[in-house]
C-alpha cells in the first residue's frame, strides 16, 4: 500500500519543480498498450500541458495514465465536478495559452457539447478524446459508433469542428498528436473519436517523439494574460460568444463558414482500398473500417470486385474523394456499429449521385469481417 | 483603469458593483494580470467594460472557465462575475466544487433576487412572498423552498484559507473593501474567495427610486445578512499591518510577492 502523504505530495507543483524530463519518449519505442494508455502517452508526446477530466467509462484510464505521467513531465491535471466543468476548464486552459485537453464518452459527450459549442463560436483550440460507448442514455460502458452525429454536429451550431475517427492504436497515437496541431493551427475544436474497444484493447504500436521524427508541433498562444498593461501597451483581450443583432452574428458566422471551407481540404483524410474497379464499395469508419478492409482482402482473394472507403475525418468529410469512389461502383454498403449515423453523413455527401445503397447497421455491437463478407456476397450474387 | 459607460438599466446595481471592483483592482495594482470572466445574464454586458482581459462565458460556466485559466497559469488573477441564477442554480455545482477544492479564484455574485435579463423570473434568491413573472402570486416557500443563502453555504463547505462575505451596493466603501480582501486572498494564494453582492433591479422589481432603495436596504438584508463570514487570519494581519495612508502601497507590494519569488 502506498503511503498517503507520499502519493499526495507527488501531485503538488512544488514536488514537480525538480522534474527535468522534457523528452517524453526517447526516439522510437515498440510497445504493447491499451488505447487509453496510448492517448496519455500521445498527449505527453504532443507537449500537452494540462488535462481536465471527469470519470466515465470507458475513458477513465486516460486520466489514470495521465496522472501517473504528468508529474514526471511537469504537467498538470484537474479532476472536475462533471463534464461541463471538464470542458469549460479545458477552455480556460486554452485561453491561458496552454495545450489543454479532456476525454469523455457517451452521456459525458452530451454534456461536453455545451463547452464544445462555446469553443466553436470562439474558435478555441480545445482537444477532446471520445471513447464511444453504447447509447442512447447510459446504455453500455463497452462500445459503439453511436456518437458520430453528436460529435460531428453536436451543439446549437453548424458543426465547425474537426473529428478524426481512428481505427486502431497506432492511429490513436498518431492522431492524438495531430489533434493538438490541427487545433492550434486552425483554431477549431478537435475531437479524436475512438471507442471502447480501442480504449480497452491492447495492440502493438510504435510510440515516438514527434520532434525527433522532424514533425512540427504547433505552439500554443495566450488569449489572456499577455505581457503588458491592457489599454496601454496592448489592447485588452475582450472575448465573447454573445451578439446583439442578427446581422452581427451573421457576419461572424460568415467568417467561420469561409474559414472552415477554406481549410477543410487541407484537413480531410480518408483511406481507400481496392476502390478503382470495385463493383461493391464498402463504406465504414473506425474499428469497423478494419473489419471492412479484412473483408475486402478475403473477397478479393475469392475474385470478387469489392473495395473499401474509410473516412478518417468524419468532419470535414472527404466528400469529393467519396463521390469519386462511389461513382465507379454499382452498389455501396455502409457498415457501422450504429443505426445509420455514418449512413446519414454518406447520403449527404453523395446527394445527386445515382447508386444503390445498402447497409449493415449493428447499433452498439461490434462488426466482424465475416459478417461483412456474408453481407457483401448477398449483394454481389 | 479606464472603463466605458455601462450598458445597464438606470438604477441597476451592476454599475456600482463593477465600479467598486474596478477600484479594488486599481488599489491592488493588478490590472495587467487580471482576467475578468462574466456570465450570462445582465453580467455579460460587462464583456468589454474594463481595460482588462475579459472572457464572456456560458450561463453558470464562468467559475469553471476561470478555474481552468487559474490552473493553467496561477500568476493570473481570475475573477468570475455572475448573477444569482448563474451561481446558485445552473452553475451551483461549479460554485460548490470550486469552493470545496479551495480554488484560488474570486467569485463575485450579484444577488438581485431574480433572473433579470430574461425578464424577471423567480431565482433561488427570490424572497418569500416576492412577486416575479414565474411567481405572480408571490413565492410560496411550501412549493419552491426558501431563498438560497450562498455565502453561508460557501462558508460552510470551503476549507480554511477561504474568504467569504456578503456586501451590498448600498454600502460601497464596505463593498470595495470586501473585494480588495477577496482579491488579496487570491493574490496571496490562500484559497477561494467569494463575495455575494446585494444589488438592485428596479426594472424587474417595478419599483421607483425610493422603493428600490427600501427593498435593497431593508427587506433584502433581513434575509441576507451583510458582513464577512469567513476571513483567513493572515488577511487580517496583512491589512492591520498597513497604515491607512500607505495601504495601497503595502497591498501592491503584497500582490507582487508571487512574482518576486
How many domains is the backbone of chain A divided into? 2
CATH topology call of chain B = Rossmann fold
Q: Which term fits the overall shape of chain A?
A: globular
**Straight-line distance between termini of chain B:** 27 Å
Main CATH class of the largest domain in chain A: Alpha Beta
CATH level-4 homologous superfamily of chain B: Thiamin diphosphate (ThDP)-binding fold, Pyr/PP domains
Low-confidence stretches of chain A: 1-20
Which tags fit this structure?
heterodimer, A: alpha/beta, Rossmann fold, 2 domains, seven-stranded mixed β-sheet, 14 helices, 15 strands, 42% helix, B: 261 residues, alpha/beta, two-stranded antiparallel sheet, 11 helices, 9 strands, disordered C terminus
In short:
The complex is a heterodimer of chains A (381) and B (261). Chain A is α/β, with parallel strands linked by helices and 381 residues long. Chain A has 14 helices and 15 strands.
Report on this model:
The complex is a heterodimer of chains A (381) and B (261). Chain A has 381 residues and is of the alpha/beta class. Chain A has helices at 4-9, 13-16, 35-45, 60-69, 83-95, 106-122, 148-153, 169-186, 196-200, 246-267, 286-301, 319-328, 341-350, 369-380; strands at residues 28-34, 50-53, 76-79, 100-104, 127-132, 162-165, 190-195, 202-208, 238-239, 270-273, 280-283, 306-311, 313-315, 331-336, 356-361. In chain A, helix 3 (35-45) packs across helix 4 (60-69), helix 3 packs parallel to helix 8 and helix 5 packs parallel to helix 6. The longest helix of chain A is centred in the C-terminal third of the chain and has 22 residues, at 246-267. Residues 1-20 of chain A have low confidence and may be disordered. Chain B contains 11 helices and 9 strands. In chain B, a hairpin with a 5-residue loop joins strand 5 (114-115) and strand 6. In chain B, helix 1 crosses helix 7 and helix 3 (84-90) packs across helix 4. The longest helix of chain B has 16 residues, at 13-28. Chain A binds chain B through residues 49-50, 52, 76, 78, 80-82, 84-85, 88-93, 95-98, 100, 114-115, 118, 223-226, 228-232, 236-242, and chain B through 1-2, 31-33, 35, 40, 44, 47-48, 50-58, 61, 64-73, 75-76, 93-94, 96-97. Strand 9 of chain A pairs parallel with strand 2 (53-56) of chain B.
